[in-house]
Amino acid sequence: MNFTRWSARLPGTQRRAAVRDEQGSVPAARAESTRPASGPTPQGEAPVPPGAPLEALSASEILDSLPAPVALLHGPDLRITYVNDAYTAAFGERPLGALAAEAMPELTELSLLPLVGQVLRSGTPRTVKSRKVLDGHSYTVTCTPVAVHGPEGDDEEGVLVYATDVTDHAEAAERLRTSERRHRDTAVTLQRSLLPQDLEQPDDLRIAATYQPGGTDAAVGGDWYDVITLGAGRTALVIGDVMGRGVRAAAVMGQLRTAVRAYARLDLPPHEVLQLLDVLAAEIDASQIATCVYAVHDPNEGQLVYASAGHLPVLVRHEDGTVHRAEEPPGPPLGTGGTGGWTHTSGTIPLPPGSTAVLYTDGLVERRSEDIDEGVASLERALSGAVGSPQVVCDRLIRSLGVTADHDDDVAVLVVQHPSRTGASAELFHNASLDLLGGVEAAPRARAFATGVLASWRFPVELRDLGVLAASELVANSLQHGTPPMRLGLRRTDRRLIIEVTDGDEHLPRRRQAEPADEAGRGISIIATVASSWGSRRTPGGGKAVWCEFALPG
Fold this sequence. Notes:
Layout lengths: L4 E4 L4 H10 L8 E2 L26 H6 L5 E5 L4 E5 L1 H7 L8 H4 L1 H5 L3 H10 L3 E7 L5 E12 L5 E11 L1 H28 L11 E7 L9 E10 L2 E10 L3 H18 L5 H15 L4 E10 L4 E7 L5 E3 L5 E3 L21 E4 L4 E6 L11 H13 L5 H11 L10 E8 L4 H4 L3 E6 L6 H15 L4 H21 L5 E6 L3 E8 L19 H8 L2 E6 L5 E8 L3
Antiparallel strand pairs: 1-2, 1-6, 3-4, 3-7, 5-6, 6-7, 8-17, 9-10, 10-11, 11-12, 12-15, 13-14, 13-16, 16-17, 18-19, 19-20, 20-22, 21-22
Helix pairs in contact: 7-8, 8-9, 13-14, 14-15
C-alpha cells in the first residue's frame, strides 16, 4: 500500500483542484510524490531544500510536522496505514497493517470505531467534540474519508483521523459548569428557604402548593407563594414572581414576601397592600420588577377579594366543573411606581363551598411556541377535570401542562379549596348574627343572644361565659364609640369560636393602659386578656370590624 499516493474528499476540493490543474500544479484533489513514506532519500535524488514548493513535499512529511495526532486507516476492516509522530507520542507505537479495532484501544475509549465505519460507508466527514480517554486527556476528533492508492494503481477507501487535544478547554468548561451548578444550587437553596416550609391551614380552607425550579440549564427565578391567617376566619393568599434570575432575584423575592406578611397584619384591602409593596419594590431595587396577586378569603362572604400587580388571572373551578377567570384587569407590576398614573384596584370572584381556586406563575402556562393566553386556556381545561385533594390537583395541573424536571422556567402553583361540608363535619361550622338596634338597650339583647347561641352550640360553661363577656365588651365599645349600622356576629369552626362586631365608624380601637380612677377604657384590655387573639380592620363599605377568637378545647 503506497501511502504517498492518496487523496482526501473534502468539500470544495474539486473546485480548488481544478484551479491548480489550470496553473499546472498537482493533480486535482491529490498530493502525489514518488518518494517513499519513510527512510533515507533514494540515491541520486536530491534532498528537498528548505522553502520547497508544496508539490515537492510528501504527504507523510506534511503530516509528520503537525503537532496534532493523525492516523490513516484503510479498507473495510480498517487497518492502520499510517500514524504521525504526534499520534505516537500521545497514544504509543501502533503497528502498521494491524486492525484498528485491536491495535488502537484509544478509538474504543473515544467511542470512535462506529463513527469511523460510518464515515467509510457514507463518504461524509464527521466531527465529535471533547471526548475523554482514560489518561484524562480530551480530544476533538475529525474523521475524513480518503482514497488510498495501492502500488498497482488500485484505489481503496480509507479514513483520515485527525485529533486535537482540547484538555485545557474541556477542564475549563467543566470548572465553569461546576461553578454554575454551585451558583444555581445556592439560589435554589435560598429560594426554598424563603418559601413557607409548612403552609398555614385555615379552618375553612384546604390548601396545597408546589414550587419547581427550572431545569439544570436554567437559572432559578424569584417565584413565591404564601398563606397568611388574618384572624376572624379570614385568610390572605399570595403568589408572585420577581422578573429576573439567580440569587439576586431570590433575595428580592424574600424581602417582598416578608413585607407582604407585615402589611397583611394591617388587614388592609388587597389593592392597598399592593400599593405599599409597589413603593417598597422600587426602593429595594429599581431594576427589579415583580408581579403579584394578593387575595383575601372571608368565610362569611363566600368570595375572594383580590388585587393583581401585572400577574396572571386567578382561576376558580366550581363544583359542576365550570371554570371562571378573575375579570378585574391587573394593575402595573410592583416596582414601576404606578406607571402612567394607573393604580391598583380590588376585584371579587365567587368561591362558594365545593369550589377550587388556583393561583400560579407564568412558568406554568408560558411557552415560547404559543401565546400565553393559549397557555391559560390549557390550564382552564386541565382544571375543569381536576378533582381530589389540593395536592392531587397541584400535581395533576403540573403534569397536564407538560412541566417536567427539564422545564426551562420556575413554576409555583397554589391550590385553595373551599370544601363543601355535610353530616357531622357540617355540625362543627355554624354562624349566627344579630343587628344591634335601639341604642343602649341593644347591650342586654346582645348578651342574651350570645348566651343562647353559645349554649346551643354546646360549649363548656367556662368557654361560654368567656364568650358572653367578650361579646358584651365588644358591643359596649361599639355602642359608645361607633355609629350605626351595628351587628354582632358569632361563628364557630372545628377549632375556634370567633366573635365580631361591626359598625359604621372607621376609627380603629387601640389597647391602652387605663388609670385606676378611669371609669372606662378597659374593654379592649379585658378582651385581649381573656381571648386567644383579637384585632380590628376597616370594612370595604366604610366602618370597621372588631373581633376576637377563642381556641376550642382539643
